[in-house]
Amino acid sequence: MHFSFIATCALFAGVIAAPALSSKRHVVHERRERLPAGWRKEAKSPSHAVLPMRFGLSQSNLDRADEFLMDVSHPSSPNFGKHWSPQQIAETFAPTEEAINAILDWLTESGIDKERIKLSPGMNWVNANLTVTEAESLLQTKYWHFIHVGSGTSHVACDDYSIPDDIRKHIDLITPTVHFDARISKKKQKRSLTSREAKLNARQTLKTKYKLGTSIGNPGDGSLPKAGGAVAHLNNDLANCDVSIVPDCLRALYKIPIDYPVAASNSYGIVEYTPQAYLPSDLDLFFANFSPALVGSRPEFESIDGGLLQTIVEDFNYNGESDLDLEYSMALVYPQSVTLYQVGDIFEGASFNNFLDALDGSYCTYEGGDDVTEDGVYPDPYGSGYGFYSGSEACGGFAAANVISTSYGYNEADLTAFYEMRQCYEYMKLGLQGVTFLYSSGDYGVAGNSGECIDPTTGAYNNGTRYSRSIDNEPLKADVSVGTSGMFVPSFPGGCPYVTSVGATQVKPNATVTQPEEAAESVIYSGGGFSNVFGLPSYQAEAVATYFAKHSPPYGADQYNNSQTSRGFPDVAANGVNYVIAIDGAFSYVYGTSASSPTFGSVMTLINAARLNAGKSPVGFINPVLYTHPHMLNDITEGGNQGCGTAGFTAVKGWDPVTGLGTPDFTKMVEVWLALP
């Protein structure tokens, strides 16, 4: 599973390395091929502005990641289930002393005083505040202001940067550079606000942020579930599952048992990003109709970096995701407990890295916290009171649940390859510790969030429809639509080989739960395709080779990475169409892989309960077992995932980049996992 940039898709990878002529020669380390959607370059950055530079040190033994993870995750390994301790992981992957000294020597030789240079607590980042002039000289680049056309927000970044050839092997990435969205460091007037001022300020922030759709959890985020119409009549009849999915439908489809015996140490985590928040009254309304024993029950609440259940705005845009995730996960795994990881305050927000920081103190960056170029920074620098978090950034201290489901995602093209690879290796480390990570694969078929595709000539987003809703929850409205075709856009982290990517299916119209499902083609299309960053993992090699040998898609390298050497996704699927949820006091339909991921995660949580009650370890990283025993999944062979002016890929016998290996069969899956050590 050794990662490498795909040579045949250098346009996508965003990294160009020139051949070294001498140890003094600078080589391009990262280059951004396109701006994220909605941004434009403005003016040159002032030379005196201060940039909080972070130098990410290359970790040791990453070339053995496949070996290590397969040793505890592959069903044929004698060490299956013998997960590592955090200390063992920290010691194995810590940057070498050589790498640390090389970076420190480079900075001091470049005129940076030793007093300005700090090593992060995890010893994996070197930090130094530099002026734009110093940074440009050090990295042989130019820094620019970029403006977001929707909000007017200003950020600073460069188009590429270079470092000495003999230093390059010691550095993963440097920020702020080509990564978005970086902010110029400046004095901020932090003041105390009255409760009324703070809430009005928070409400206005939400009204403004929903238009952007550029960060995780904002109501314009294309990875959020899609709203359907109101449910006219509740119906728990299994004969109605082709038009209304309720918990009993999923139990019938996937043979999920009811009231499965509790395992004391079992845990299931759902991750939400503020301002997304559930409403307690919605949970009770749903449970009263579909799981009466849960009325009054709430998830165990873990607030990370000021995560809060905001109530200043209540509608589908702010409650739909969290209501959906919790109503179904809690109902399906009862009486197992569910933990809600609520990440980020209203103003700074959060990213996947903020969450990972909270689980693993060694992953934290600057001053034991987060990376200011991508992630929320705390204490919140803009104020205090409601919606502002004044505490320290989370850096370890939060326990990882055995299974963690996340229903959010980025376009792979919006982040640099180094940033994505560094985060992906963190999922590998958590997998070594026995954690199962599931991510939804996306709702736009082969296109990116909101249907975005990439112009093969300019490298810019050239089509797709962007959606917005009013603060009063009007129906989805298209506000931008240009073009009808382009290059496919994989999702992230769905394309990371160390997570389990979950696509979407649906019950066929007029069919029953005893008949095979098909790929989701109602309102949404199951996200799927091939990564432009991550190489083909060993556990998936045979499945991908068989797919191309028998069902080679009719598209060329101008539309997707057809090298047959890259990671394919999704791995599995679950129903994602016509879910009935209680939302803002009423019942409505919802669609998305946002539903598929927590459903599949619920199945894995019950399998963990069986293993733990048998005195065995949690399942941990599940992909090697899934691909070794595909018979325990319901193969999906109908439907497709259109997008970017094409029919997309097609669901076929065996693995495919639409529904992966298929949907779960709990009875078969628990039998396989209970037979393992």
Description:
Keywords: Calcium, Glycoprotein, Hydrolase, Metal-binding, Protease, Secreted, Serine protease, Signal, Virulence, Zymogen. Its EC number is 3.4.14.10. The active site is at residues 321, 325, 594. By secondary structure, the protein is an alpha+beta fold. The protein folds into 2 domains: 32-59 and 96-175, no CATH class; 200-675, 3-Layer(aba) Sandwich (Rossmann fold). It has 16 helices and 30 strands. Strands 11, 12, 13, 14, 16, 22, 23 and 26 form an 8-stranded mixed beta sheet that branches. The protein has a 4-stranded antiparallel beta sheet with strand order 4-5-3-9. Helix 2 runs parallel beside helix 12, helix 10 (316-333) packs parallel to helix 14 and helix 14 packs across helix 16. The model is unreliable at 1-23, 181-193, 209-213, 365-370 and 464-483 (pLDDT under 50).
Count of separate structural domains: 2
- The CATH architecture of the largest domain is 3-Layer(aba) Sandwich
Helix content: 25-40%
Mean pLDDT rating: 87
Unreliable residue runs: 1-23, 181-193, 209-213, 365-370, 464-483
In this structure, how is the largest beta sheet organized? 8 strands, mixed
CATH topology of the largest domain: Rossmann fold
* Total beta strand runs: 30
Strand content: 15-25%
| Terminal Cα span | 23 Å
Radius of gyration: 24 Å
Q: Count of helical segments?
A: 16
In CATH's first tier, which class of the largest domain applies?
Answer: Alpha Beta
Class per helix and strand makeup: alpha+beta
Q: What is the CATH superfamily label of the largest domain?
A: Peptidase S8/S53 domain
Broad shape = globular
Pfam families: Pro-kuma_activ
Signal peptide: 1-17
InterPro entries: Peptidase_S8/S53_dom_sf (IPR036852), S53_propep (IPR015366), Sedolisin_dom (IPR030400), Tripeptidyl-peptidase_I (IPR050819)
Protein name: tripeptidyl-peptidase II
